[in-house]
Amino acid sequence: MTAQPLMVDLADVHLTLTSAAGPVNILRGVTFQVAQGETVGIVGPSGSGKSTMLAIMAGLEKATSGRVSVAGRDLSALGEDQLALFRRDTLGIVFQSFHLIPTMTALENVAVPMELAGRRDALDLARAELDAVGLGHRHDHYPAQLSGGEQQRVALARAVAAMPKLLLADEPTGNLDGNTGKGIVDLMFSLRQAKGSTMVLITHDPGLAAACDRVVRIEDGRVVA
Q1: pLDDT digits (tens, 9 = 90+) for 122-143
Q2: Domain limits of the chain?
Q3: Which residue of 1, 14, 86, 129 is most buried, as measured by CB atoms within 10 A?
Q4: What is the pLDDT of residue 1?
Q5: Around 20, how many Cα atoms within 13 Å sit in the side-chain half-sphere?
Q6: β-strands 198-202, 166-170: how paired?
């Protein structure tokens, strides 16, 4: 059986930040791989380095040392502008706190990344994605007019609209009640499958982690299981 190509390949990744009290080791030699098409749940206690690892995969944080390869690109070799283009063309990211633009409607929030990428059909694609997440009646509503679950659906539509190779989710149900969170999870997995994306998600929810192909545990900046 032929092994799937790697979407994410981190090798001996360290991240050390400076503080008034001295250096702080956030990641301590993380080695972590994700095959194309795989879904991986990352679990571990708060402060263990989970979100930092996701930020490094997204090119939002630079590793102090080690190799970071995502979708065949060596992220350490890319400048800030190149990293921005890489994220635009390769990634979809869903955050716990939605990160919607408050002065834009749901439709505009979903369309804007595609408009920045020069897609002339951005609004049509955005409408289709909002319809797909059950918000066909909410196109013209602003974030403040939407419930938490609806805002996360908009964020999810925005993340998958450009058919990303890699979908990253950081506690996507963290600000939602149980039933609403379960709906978001089901939707996220079905959209990921429809788009053919690889997915890495951080969660404190054992049930959500168990829905993934594989679960990776991080403690104190290291992969322990």
Answers
A1: 999 999 999 999 999 999 999 9
A2: 38-62+78-223
A3: 129
A4: 44
A5: 0
A6: parallel
